[in-house]
Amino acid sequence: MKEIAVANQSEGTIRRSFSISPRTSPLFPFFIFVGFFLIWPIISLIIRSFKGNEDEWTFANYSPLLHGSYFHAFVVSIKLASITALIGAILGSFFVYAIVNNAGPRVTSVLDSVCAVFANSGGVPLAFMFIAAFGTEGLFTKFLKSIGWDIYAGKFTLFSFTGVVLVYSFFQIPLMILVFKPALQGLRKEWSEASINLGANSTTYWRHVVIPILTPSFLSAFFLLFAGGFSAYATARAMTVGTVPLVPIIIGTLVDGNVISNQTNLGDALAVGMIVVAGVAMSGYLIAQRRANRWRAA
Amino acid sequence: MGIHFDYTLQGGYMRKSIISGVVAAIAVAVLPVTMATPSNAYTNFSKCSDLKACGGMDALVKAAQKEGKLNVITLPRDWANYGEAMDLFSKAFGIKITDDNPDGSSAYEIQTVKSAPDSKVPDAVDVGITYGVDNANLFAKYKVATWADIPAQYKDASGRWYGDYNGQIALAYDTSIAKAPKSFADLKDPAFKNMVAIGGDPTGAQEALMSVFAANLASGGTTKNVQAGIDYFKGLKASGNFVPVLANGQNLAAGAYKVSFSWDFNGPGAIASAAKIGKTIKYVIPTDAVIKGTPYIMAIPFNAPHPAAARLWTEFLFSQNKGMLTKDLGSTAGQTGSKIFASIMGGQNIWISGAAHPITEPAMRAKGLAINPPAGFETPASAKLVTPTPDEQTAAKALLKDQWPAIASN
User: Fold this and answer.
1) Which of A139, A296, B221, B365 is the most buried (most CB within 10 A)?
2) How does residue B248 score in pLDDT terms, banded at 50, 70 and 90?
């Protein structure tokens, strides 16, 4: 529980930082960084989302968000994020359970590194990896065909919603393993022994001890995965041609396209919409995280 | 907090500089008076609106060489042979060219004009036509010497922007496939199962939008309504021929697709880079639909940091001369500007050599000034060229915005 103690201490430091002292001055670069690259862009984004092309104030950028293709894009994005987060959370938990119970410290540390690499893979290289493996002429596609399974015989294509789900799972599952493993490792042997001494069988122990303890951690991990899947951009963009309408891709088209001019403010409004959705997910994450910490700190 | 700290540090200097500030203010107030005085010795290159007003070619070249630099933006070297154009201009006039973000978008160019620090503002932009129309107030008025040869519908009457070249939609294919496609209709053949791709989202990429227009034309549609084009892609998807993967070099290398729709002026570059990875690709102008895109447009931002070089670059790109290319050009030291300019190939012909269609090409053909396009990129003589108007494109985008995502959803 050493990490928690350190974390609490640094939290205290942040709270006191409004009174300038030599102790907090090393944090100034961090505050400046956050100010320039997070706070200021968000504020200017919100302001621009309420401006028209002639720099006048308007609410007009927000009305397209509520219906039609832009609304649909939010639905698809949320659906994609939820499905990939759920797949990641469930499969990831099983892997974590297997790792915690079966792997020795050396194997665990190797798996940690591997997961860290996979969880951070993304963007164009990840998309290309899958295209080279599972594309129409991918290595795996050819291999599967050689053993009699032509994955492209039916409706399947990698360049569709299903394909993007498959590719996102590639980073969602390892991310789940990384963030959920500490929770499972935090289950103390004494709790299981105590339950058994008190007459609980394995099912009762899981139902009344493990699941209640792990639920907040599981939920917080789910929300984290959701936020990651919701905001991913380059991977889907490199794989598809607007055929999976995701909000980040549409924003890209509006602010950095070659066809639609002067609709960047609409892109800004869509981005604010994304911040709201991500904000809801992150609130869920923080609430669940706080509950999880309460358990762990106990 | 950091900002406050900086101010206190500079406070002392600021007070000392008040006197020089006053001097500068007086100078600024006097300057317009000097400028208003007619003078042959002084030309304001930020304001001069044609070659004559800029003092003629010799004076323009001299001023551009004095500036010594030219900022261009988002010009890929293998796009319409821009690489040769930049090399030739640089070598002939001794002006260093900086190409910011070669693979950027039109939106990026406009954003940079609006927000870059003074010295980084591009001296000329090459953007989609709507970006010119919508942002005309960002550009200086300048009419190139070949102005009269630019069709009226593709230029701003006051000279703020003007079409430079356009592309035609070609079929690009990997020659390893069993059957070589010749038309949009061919691609419906089961021989092309899992092979056909498009170069982007038609609501965001001009090339993809024009591909839909071309498919529409081949399917009996008119430029007023692209529904037949959307249905064409729906049909290809249903038959399994259309792969909704992004058509680009990487994905071609991975074998994710074999046939794509592409601007012809990307052909020479694409063929060369495919050859490097051992792929042979070919371009063919489809027999059943020849869509000529609306031209890209050229414009000089009013705040271009090298106004003379910007005007010289524009004159060069719109020149119809047949002269020398970089590899043939010797030293130009000591030659007059007009002599150098006359000795090198003009941008209009350089674009033709890059399989693009310069805006003054019809006039050049009539005058016998145009060179021949590279082999394999000739437009079939029977082809009727169609160019969708900006309004028709807007209508198409509105339709595509709702219908395009659905063609491949599963």
Assistant:
1) B221
2) confident
Distance CA A163, CA A158 (A): 4
Host domain of residue B389: 169-291+380-408
Interface test with B, best of A79, A255, A258 (most B CBs within 10 A): A258
How confident is the prediction for chain B on average, in pLDDT? 87
E strand or H helix at B145, and its extent?
none
Statement: the pTM of the whole predicted model exceeds 0.90: no
CA-nearest residue to B250 within chain A is A128
* Residue scoring higher pLDDT (B407 or B211): B211
CATH number for position B338: 3.40.190.10
Instruction: Please indicate, yes or no, if residue B43 is contained in any of the structural domains.
Output: no
Q: What is the share, in percent, of chain B residues with pLDDT greater than 90? A: 63
B130: amino acid identity, one letter: T
Number of other residues whose CB lies within 10 A of the CB of residue B322: 15
Structural domain contains residue B327: yes
- Which tens digit of pLDDT belongs to each residue from A108-145? 999 999 999 998 888 888 988 998 999 888 899 999 99
> What pLDDT band is residue B123 in, cutting at 50, 70 and 90?
very high
Q: Quick one: tokens of A229?
A: 């899947």
Please name the residues between 108 and 147 in chain B that touch chain A, using a CB distance below 8 Å.
Answer: 108, 110-111, 127-128, 130-131, 133-135
Q: Using the beta-carbon criterion (under 8 Å), do A256 and B407 form an inter-chain contact?
A: no
User: How open is the CA angle B29-B35-B39, to the nearest 5 degrees?
Assistant: 150
Structure tokens, A150: 């032509």
